[in-house]
Design brief:
Layout lengths: L1 H11 L6 E6 L2 E6 L6 E11 L4 H12 L6 E7 L4 E11 L4 E13 L2 E14 L8 E4 L8 H20 L1
Antiparallel strand pairs: 1-2, 2-3, 3-7, 4-5, 5-6, 6-7, 7-8
Helix pairs in contact: 2-3
């Protein structure tokens, strides 16, 4: 019986805004279930095996992201820690018109492997023409715009990076 009390106590102390998880195009999609909007918090794919040290893998990813066709820009690199962060901006088409999605790409590398996480994914809502003035709303399942094309576009940037790193 004492275990029942502990179980009940644990159930009642779980926060109501727990993260949920779903899948999309072979990626785990972590959602914030705190609101009805179910915002996308983080998207993770496969852990890839590749020869090289963390520094070599990060350097390869940095080279790939420095190409104009990568649709991303490197924000920070910590080769010693095996970490690179970039921001992607990619156009996609939903039911109504062409739109723009943005997402943060984090490459984490170790000895002989790397993985990529996508976060802070948003859809352009307003712009005065200057990049600094753009307003992105967080990507949410159940939002007023179709989320699938936006998430597919950001994942396509990640997949192009993976292909380049292996290329």
């Amino acid at each position: 019986m004492p275990y029942r009390s502990l179980l009940l106590a644990a159930l009642f102390t779980v926060p109501s805004g727990m993260a949920a998880e779903t899948t999309f195009q072979g990626h785990a999609v972590e959602l914030d279930d705190a609101s009805a909007m179910r915002q996308v918090v983080r998207v993770t794919g496969t852990r890839y095996a590749i020869p090289g040290s963390p520094e070599q893998i990060v350097a390869r990813a940095q080279m790939c992201l420095s190409r104009k066709e990568s649709m991303a820009g490197v924000v920070s690199v910590d080769a010693d820690a095996g970490r690179l962060t970039a921001v992607s901006r990619v156009e996609y088409r939903d039911e109504l018109a062409p739109r723009l999605a943005r997402g943060w790409i984090t490459v984490e590398a170790g000895e002989g492997f790397f993985s990529i996480a996508l976060s802070r994914i948003g859809i352009l809502q307003a712009s005065t023409g200057e990049t600094a003035d753009e307003v992105f709303s967080p990507l949410a399942l159940g939002g007023k715009h179709a989320w699938e094309p936006a998430l597919a576009a950001v994942i396509a940037v990640e997949q192009a990076l993976v292909n380049c790193v292996f290329g």
